[in-house]
Amino acid sequence: MEAMLLPVAWEIDQVLDQIALSGFAIIDQAYSHEYQQELILECTENLDQFRKAAIQNGVVSNIRSDHILWINQDQFPVAQQHIQALEQLSQQFNRHFFLGIQHVEAHFACYNSGEFYALHRDNPQQKNDRMISSVYYLHDQWQENWGGQLHLQDKQGEWHIIQPTANRIAIFQSDLLHEVKPAQQQRLSITAWLRSGSSLY
Question: pTM score, two decimals?
Answer without folding.
Answer: 0.91
